[in-house]
Automatic annotation (TrEMBL):
Origin: domain of life: Bacteria
Alphabetical keyword list: Cell membrane, Membrane, Signal, Transmembrane, Transmembrane helix
SMART domains, sorted: CYCc, HAMP
Domain HAMP: 305-357
Annotated signal peptide: 1-22
Transmembrane segments: 282-304
Entries under CDD domains matching the protein: CHD (cd07302), HAMP (cd06225), PDC2_MCP_like (cd12912)
Protein known as: Adenylate/guanylate cyclase domain-containing protein
SUPFAM superfamilies in the record: HAMP domain-like, Nucleotide cyclase
Compartments in which it is found: Cell membrane
Topology in the lipid bilayer: Multi-pass membrane protein
First-listed, main subcellular location of the protein, grouped into a coarse class: membrane
Length: 590
């Protein structure tokens, strides 16, 4: 979506002001949450551990009392009277013991004393299949599941064994009231809503502040949920976790194990109360953030208004300068960076105008000069060297043999492809030798060497260029002939004085040469056969002695007086002709 400058700056400035505040508030809240969570975990863990220690102490006292029911001289030899006396004393010491049963090594009941039921002596009842008798054979102390009785508090069974020569002599089975554990759990206080409860290994409630919930502990669905909660607490490693209680309220929960019995004390507190200080901090942070938002909006509005005016002027100026109005100037007087930016825009416009003029001059020069030569003339800043003047030049003409016949029958795309390959190859060589391409028409080229920029040994320079042009074109011709195109390539070079300069009008001008040397080079090119590079005597006599050329004799050319001695530039190994004869001298003078 496109927005105005004012809208953009308002949004940016507003975001720049408000985001750090928001980030600070969020960061502070995050750290506060971590700290509050750590404090809460420590508090709840302390309560749970304290309760678990008390329950451990209670169970230890019961184990100690039950251990005292075993006579010192050996349980298998003790009389029933002696066993009864020891059992009654243990029940008197620990009111939480509801009943005690003693079963001998064969599983026969010897004694049963109960606070609520009938006592039995030497009943001989077979209790070998009793879970407590079976369980105590594999565990030093065995704890049974919770026993629920209508109208009474729940209880749990504890069993211990006495040994005689590593053989179980008697099993002591006690039914223990869970009321003392309920009293321990009821004392847990964490805030207003915090409470604790105890579950056994199967997930059933052993103790809860609400005794009615313990009586409902046999519910398997509730036990499954408590087992999952116990596993989650154990995985947290003492850190408080978030969960939902039986009333589906969000609570924070920790636990501590009762190792002796395999139980777990769980302490929970509602999240609303546990994180009340954090919520209050959030409200304060939100209020401060709201005030900061209002202040940031006012400040952003004022700054955006102050900045949008000059920037709109800059935008308008940039559009005009971009459209080519390099004489446009941006006037801003703010005394700050925007004013300096406007000055830079104005300076850029001036430099662009200068660059445009230079590019236009360079484009005009590159129409007939090699890029390097055009750059040289442009950098000199003086185009007077392009004005009409007399200069000794080497005129180079070239064209394709058989091209007229080929173009009459070739498809347009094939014709243009051949010309494109031809000009790309020769253009690279002309640029390499910094020669001046004055004109080209169809397959014919006219090139000048030594004008407008002079070079050393122009004749040798031109011949080397012609040899490279011939070699490069012959490579193309080899491929063309494979496609069935009968085409050749010939060249003509002549050296002499000519009038050179720019000819044309304001919108179109070319750099060219006028004189007999141009006509002679053109005639030589027309006379050249495929692979030939024909040169006149003036070119030949300026070549070094190791340059292989062949004297082809004199020829008469249309439009030229007298006969012209013609030479062909050959491959290495040809015998060089004598260039000092009187005939040659006479031709040079003529």
């Amino acid at each position: 979506m496109r927005r105005s400058l004012f809208q953009k700056y308002f949004l940016v400035l507003f975001a720049a002001a408000i985001f750090p505040m928001a980030a600070g508030g969020i960061s502070n809240t995050s750290f506060s949450y971590v700290d509050q969570h750590a404090i809460l975990s420590a508090l709840l863990q302390s309560e749970a551990t304290s309760a678990a220690d008390k329950i451990e102490s209670f169970l230890d006292s019961i184990q100690l009392s039950l251990g005292s029911t075993i006579p010192p001289e050996g349980s298998n030899m003790a009389s029933v009277k002696q066993l009864r006396l020891l059992a009654v004393r243990a029940m008197h010491q620990v009111p939480g013991i509801l009943s005690i049963s003693i079963v001998d090594g064969t599983g026969a009941e010897r004694l049963h004393i109960s606070r609520t039921g009938k006592n039995r002596t030497e009943s001989g009842a077979d209790r070998s299949g009793d879970p407590a008798v079976v369980g105590v054979r594999t565990a030093k102390v065995w704890y049974g599941p919770v026993i629920y009785r209508p109208g009474s508090e729940p209880s749990v069974t504890m069993a211990m064994a006495s040994y005689d020569n590593l053989v179980i002599a008697n099993s002591v089975i006690a039914e223990i009231s869970l009321k003392p554990i309920w009293l321990i759990v009821s004392e847990i206080r964490v805030g207003r809503s915090g409470r604790g409860f105890v579950i056994d290994q199967a997930g059933r409630l052993i103790a809860h502040p609400a005794i009615s919930k313990v009586m409902q502990g046999a519910d398997e669905k509730a036990a499954l949920a408590l087992r999952e909660l116990r596993d989650a607490i154990a995985a947290a490693g003492g850190t408080a976790i978030a969960s939902r209680n039986a009333e589906n309220e969000r609570v924070v929960t920790v636990g501590a194990p009762v190792t002796a019995a395999g139980w777990m004390v769980i302490v929970e507190q509602s999240q609303a109360e546990a994180f009340a200080p954090l919520y209050a901090s959030l409200w304060r942070t939100g209020g401060l953030l709201f005030l900061a938002t209002v202040l940031a909006a006012v400040l952003a509005y004022w700054l955006a208004r102050r900045m949008s005016g000059p920037i709109l002027l800059l935008e308008e100026g940039a559009l005009k300068i971009g459209a080519g109005q390099f004489d446009h100037r941006i006037n801003i007087s703010t005394g700050d960076e925007l004013e300096r930016l406007a000055a830079r825009f104005n300076q850029m416009a001036q430099e662009l105008a200068t660059s445009r003029d230079r590019a236009e001059r360079l484009t005009r020069l590159k129409r007939f000069l090699a890029p390097q030569v055009a750059e040289l003339v442009e950098k000199a800043g003086d185009e007077r060297m392009l004005a009409g003047q007399r200069a000794e030049v080497v005129a180079v003409f070239s064209d394709l043999r058989g091209f007229t016949a080929f173009s009459a029958h070739a498809e347009p795309e094939n014709l243009m492809q051949v010309l494109r390959e031809y000009y790309e190859a020769l253009g690279a060589i002309i640029t390499k030798y910094e020669a001046t391409l004055t004109s080209f028409s169809a397959d014919g080229l006219m090139i000048l060497v030594n004008a407008p920029v002079p070079c050393e040994e122009p004749a040798l320079h031109a011949v080397k260029m012609a040899v490279d042009m011939q070699d490069s074109t012959q490579e193309l011709i080899s491929g063309w002939r494979q496609r069935g195109y009968e085409i050749g390539f010939g060249m003509g070079l002549a050296m002499g004085w000519a009038t050179v300069g720019r000819i044309g009008y304001e919108a179109r001008a070319d750099y060219t040469a006028i004189g007999n040397v141009v006509n002679l080079a053109s005639r030589l090119c027309s006379s050249a056969e495929d692979r030939q590079i024909l040169i006149d005597y003036s070119v030949a006599r300026h070549l070094p002695g190791n340059m292989p050329i062949v004297d082809l004799g004199t020829r008469q050319f249309k439009g030229l007086e007298g006969h012209v001695r013609v030479y062909n530039v050959e491959k290495q190994g040809s015998e060089r002709p004598n260039l000092d004869s009187a005939e040659n001298d006479a031709r040079e003078k003529g």
